[in-house]
Write a structure and sequence with these properties.
heterodimer, A: alpha+beta, 13 helices, elongated, B: alpha/beta, six-stranded mixed β-sheet, four-stranded antiparallel β-sheet, 8 helices, globular
Chain lengths: 396, 247
C-alpha cells in the first residue's frame, strides 16, 4: 500500500513499456560499468606483468641527435620512429666492461630483415631477432627443449609450429635464413602477456645475424638492473658510458617502470574518456524515463484526482511517482550491472586478463541509476503532485 | 425537525468561482449563500452548466473559491493551504462520484482503506473500519474482489463504504446514480437514506435527476451560478419515495 508497492504494481502492469524504458538505463549502466571494469582489469594486468619482471629493465633505443635534451624527464614518449640506429655491439661491450654493481645483464637486440624458412628460398614471414643468451633470462623466457648456443637457432613456440607443422620437437632440424643453413638448438615454452611476441620469433646469435643481414648496428640494448632499487643507478651508468661513445647523444634511455606509469596514465585517461561517452547513453536513458513518466502522469490524471479527493497530500503523490521512476532506473541499473558482469567475465577470459566487476564500478552504477531516476523523475512527479484535484477528476 | 439545536456543517457566504481570465472569464458560481446543518440530506439540482458541480468541488475543498467565505464545521476553510485541505479531505469530507472511481488495481477492501492510509490511521484501525464499513453497505463478502469483478451498483456501494469508513462529517455525492441502472440507483439512494438516518451523516447530493432529488429532505436549485429555490421536501413525498425504494 505504500509508494514502493504502488510503484512496483504500476511497473508490473506496464511490463513491456517499463522494460523498454529501463532499457536505456540498462545500456548506459552496462557500458559504463563494463568499460571501467575492463579499464581497471587491463591496468592491474599490465601492472602485474611489469612487476613480475619488467620493472628492472632499462631500454636504450636510437634517437635523433640531441633529442634527449628536449625529452621531458619522466615521460615516455613512445618508441622513436625511423631513426637510424648508431648503437653497436661495441656499446654493449662497453657497458659490460664497466662491471657496474647495479647492472645484472646487458643484452643486445637486433631486428633482422632476413627471410626464414624450412625450405630453401622460402619465407615464413616470421620476425628474426638477433640477441644473446642473457636475453632469455632478462625477458624470463623458458625453454621447452634445448638451449641457446653460439651458433644455433631458438624458436618461439608458435614459430616452431609454423615452420615444422608435423614435427613434435624440431631441435636438430635445419632452417634457411636467406641462403644460409642453420640448425635449431632450442624451442621456447609458449608465453602470454607482454612477452607474447616471443612466440612468433626466431632467435639467432646476434653476431651471426648481423653478418647474415649485412648490418653493423643493433636495434636496441636492454639492460637489467640487479634490483628495483638499482634501476636509477643502472640508467645513470648506461648514460655515462654511451655519452662518451656517442657525443651527439643519439640515443634514449627509458626505464620500464616509467613506461608503466605512462601506460597506466594513458589507460586511465582512455577509460575515463570512454566511460564519459558511455555516460551520455545514461543521460539519454534518463530522458526516456522522464518521457514515459510524463505519459504515465497524464494517463493517470483520474487516479491522481481520486487519490487527492481521498486525502492524498501533494507529497504523497510526489513520492508515489518519484518511487516509480527511481525504481525503474534502479531495475535498469541492476540488469545493466548483471549483463556487465557476464560481459567483462567473457571478455577477460577471451583476452586473458582478469576483468571482474569492481565494487567501485557497481557503486558508481547504483549511484548513477539513483541519480538519473531522481533527476528525471522529479519533473513528472512534481507535475502530478501539483495537479488540482478538481482538474484531475474532470478528465475522463 | 428542530433545526436550532443542530450544529452547522456548511456555512458559505457569497461564494464565487471564476474560470478563465479576461474576456474568456466565466463565473461558474456567482454569489452562493448556503447553510447546511448536521444530519441534513440536501439535493443540489439544476441543469448542466448551472454551477452545481463547481459548488460541490468548493464545498469538498477540491477547488477554491475566487471570492467569498466558507466555514466547515465552524472552521474557516476558504483560504487553506493545499496540504491543510488535503488533511480535511478523506478525514472530514468524503466523496462519491458519478461512474466508477475505485482504483482498478486494488481490491475492494484496499480501496476502502485508502483514505485512511492518507489520513495516517493505524493498520489495525484501518482494517477494522474498512470491514465494518463494508458490512454496513452489505458487501463484506466481496472484500477481496477487484473493481473489475464487481457490478456497477456493487462498485458504487463499495465507493460509499470507502467514503464513510473514516467517519466523515460531510458526504458529497456527484451524480451518484448517473452511471447506474434504475434498480442499482434506487439501492444506492436507499443506502444514502439509511446512512443519513442511522449515523446522522450530513449528505449533499448533486444531481439533475428529479427522482434522486425527491429522496432528499431539502432541494436547492441552481441556475447560472445562483440559487433560485431552496425548499424542504414534503414528508408525504418522502414517505412515498421510501415505499418506492423499498419496492
Amino acid at each position: 500500500m505504500n509508494a514502493l508497492s504502488i510503484a512496483l504494481d504500476s511497473i508490473w502492469t506496464h511490463r513491456l513499456r517499463s522494460a523498454l524504458t529501463a532499457l536505456g538505463i540498462v545500456i548506459g549502466v552496462f557500458a559504463v560499468v563494463t568499460l571501467t571494469s575492463l579499464g581497471s582489469g587491463v591496468r592491474s594486468y599490465v601492472t602485474n606483468q611489469f612487476k613480475s619482471f619488467g620493472a628492472t629493465l632499462v631500454t636504450i633505443t636510437p634517437a635523433m641527435p640531441g633529442a634527449a635534451a628536449k625529452r621531458q624527464p619522466g615521460r615516455f614518449q613512445g618508441p622513436p620512429q625511423n631513426v637510424p640506429s648508431t648503437l653497436t655491439l661495441g656499446d654493449t661491450n662497453a657497458i659490460l666492461r664497466r662491471h657496474s654493481p647495479a647492472i645484472a645483464r646487458v643484452v643486445p637486440v637486433a631486428i633482422l630483415p632476413i627471410p626464414v624458412s624450412a625450405t630453401p628460398g622460402g619465407s615464413s614471414g616470421l620476425s628474426v631477432l638477433g640477441t644473446d643468451q642473457a636475453y632469455f633470462s632478462a625477458e624470463q623466457l623458458a625453454f621447452s627443449s634445448g638451449k641457446f648456443t653460439g651458433n644455433g637457432i631458438v624458436l618461439g613456440q608458435a614459430a616452431a609450429t609454423a615452420l615444422f607443422p608435423h614435427v613434435n620437437n624440431p631441435k636438430g632440424r635445419t632452417l634457411y635464413l636467406g641462403k644460409t643453413v642453420l640448425t635449431v638448438s632450442g624451442v621456447l615454452k609458449s608465453t602470454t602477456g607482454l612477452t607474447n611476441s616471443a612466440n612468433h620469433t626466431v632467435f639467432v646469435p646476434v653476431a651471426t645475424g648481423l653478418k647474415l643481414a649485412g648490418l653493423n648496428n643493433i636495434s636496441e640494448i636492454v639492460v637489467q638492473a640487479k634490483s628495483n632499487q638499482s634501476v636509477n643507478q643502472s640508467a645513470t651508468t648506461v648514460t655515462q658510458v654511451l655519452d662518451q661513445r656517442h657525443p651527439v647523444h643519439d640515443f634514449a634511455v627509458t626505464k620500464n617502470s616509467q613506461m608503466l606509469t605512462t601506460i597506466n596514465n594513458t589507460l586511465s585517461t582512455i577509460t575515463v574518456f570512454l566511460s564519459g561517452l558511455a555516460a551520455i547513453s545514461l543521460l539519454v536513458g534518463g530522458i526516456g524515463i522522464m518521457n514515459i513518466m510524463l505519459v504515465t502522469v497524464t494517463e493517470r490524471f483520474k487516479e491522481i484526482g481520486i487519490r487527492k479527493a481521498l486525502g492524498a497530500r501533494d507529497g504523497d503523490i510526489l513520492i508515489q511517482f518519484l518511487a516509480e521512476s527511481v525504481l525503474l532506473a534502479l531495475l535498469g541499473g541492476a540488469v545493466g550491472v548483471a549483463l556487465s558482469a557476464i560481459a567483462s567475465h567473457l571478455i577477460g577470459k577471451i583476452a586473458g586478463f582478469p576483468a571482474g566487476l569492481t565494487l567501485g564500478s557497481v557503486g558508481l552504477a547504483t549511484g548513477f541509476s539513483l541519480l538519473v531516476g531522481i533527476v528525471f523523475g522529479v519533473l513528472p512527479a512534481l507535475r502530478a503532485s501539483r495537479l488540482m484535484p478538481a482538474d484531475a477528476l474532470r478528465t475522463e | 425537525m428542530n433545526d436550532t439545536e443542530q450544529s452547522v456543517v456548511i456555512e458559505a457566504k457569497g461564494l464565487m468561482r471564476q474560470h478563465g481570465q479576461g474576456d474568456a472569464a466565466v463565473q461558474a458560481i456567482n454569489g452562493i449563500d448556503l447553510v447546511v446543518k448536521q444530519g441534513e440530506m440536501v439535493a443540489l439540482m439544476g441543469p448542466s452548466g448551472s454551477g452545481k458541480s463547481t459548488l460541490m468541488q468548493i464545498l469538498g475543498l477540491l477547488d477554491r473559491p475566487t471570492k467569498g467565505s466558507y466555514h466547515l464545521a465552524g472552521k474557516d476553510v476558504s483560504r487553506l493551504t493545499k496540504g491543510e485541505s488535503a488533511n480535511l479531505r478523506g478525514r472530514r469530507i468524503a466523496f462519491v462520484f458519478q461512474g466508477i472511481h475505485l482504483l482498478p488495481r486494488l481490491s475492494a477492501i484496499r480501496n476502502v482503506e485508502l483514505p485512511m492510509v492518507y489520513a495516517r490511521f493505524s493498520a489495525e484501525e484501518r482494517q477494522k473500519s474498512a470491514q465494518e464499513s463494508l458490512a454496513r453497505v452489505g458487501l463484506a463478502h466481496l472484500a477481496t474482489r477487484r473493481p473489475t469483478q464487481l457490478s456497477g451498483g456493487q462498485a458504487q456501494r463499495i465507493a460509499i463504504a470507502r467514503a464513510v469508513a473514516p467517519g466523515p462529517d460531510l458526504l458529497l455525492a456527484d451524480e451518484p446514480t448517473g452511471a447506474l441502472d434504475r434498480a442499482s440507483g434506487r439501492a444506492v439512494l436507499a443506502l444514502f437514506q439509511q446512512l443519513n438516518q442511522d449515523l446522522g451523516l450530513t449528505i449533499v447530493i448533486v444531481t439533475h435527476d428529479p427522482l434522486v432529488g425527491r429522496h432528499a429532505k431539502r432541494i436547492v436549485e441552481l441556475e447560472d451560478g445562483r440559487i433560485i429555490t431552496d425548499r424542504p421536501v414534503d414528508d408525504r413525498i418522502l414517505a412515498q419515495n421510501a415505499a418506492e425504494v423499498g419496492a
